[in-house]
Write a structure and sequence with these properties.
Length: about 180
């Protein structure tokens, strides 16, 4: 199947969405224990104004009563080659991504994310390690340099807590030797 115009999903994802995508899938296993394999691809799409090129996603799901499985993907986001690998589970209205590993350019983001579907509340515990912040300059719309490491916790009320360090940090014209 293909989606000729992804902008029709803008209201569902609550972000501006543009581009085209193709989807394929297979079902195997038994009626009581089906296994679902889904693939999606888009050569060029935009999410909230961020360019995503050469996107491929692959999902394997089992147990329709409490769907669980894995998601893997690749894309070029804001000029950075990116990969994603995570386990997922949908149970009691909460979509959980565990053992999530995202690599974007020289940045690794690892951890767990849970989204309560009814309220869209997000909780997460993430570690971020970037050996070079400069590839993020385009997305930040300001020149960035340096190395950063952080632990970030997102809470369901929308608040966040973080702890991090940075070295040889430069944000625009401001240079900071070390930040703790």
């Amino acid at each position: 199947a293909s989606a000729a115009d992804l902008s029709v999903f803008t209201a569902a994802v609550k972000q501006p969405l543009a581009g085209k995508a193709q989807f394929t899938g297979t079902v195997s296993g038994t009626i009581t224990q089906p296994k679902i394999h889904l693939e999606g691809a888009s050569p060029n799409l935009s999410v909230a104004g961020t360019s995503v090129r050469d996107l491929t996603l692959s999902t394997d799901l089992a147990d329709l009563a409490a769907p669980n499985g894995t998601v893997t993907g690749r894309a070029r986001v804001s000029g950075m080659d990116s990969t994603l690998q995570t386990a997922l589970r949908l149970q009691d209205g909460v979509l959980t991504f565990s053992n999530a590993a995202l690599r974007a350019g020289t940045t690794d983001i690892n951890g767990a994310i849970a989204i309560t579907l009814k309220t869209t509340a997000v909780t997460a515990d993430l570690t971020i390690d970037s050996s070079d912040l400069s590839p993020w300059s385009a997305l930040a719309e300001v020149p960035l340099k340096g190395r950063a490491r952080a632990k970030l916790t997102l809470k369901p009320d929308g608040s966040a807590a973080g702890d991090g360090t940075a070295s040889s940090l430069s944000i625009g014209e401001v240079n900071i030797a070390d930040l703790r």
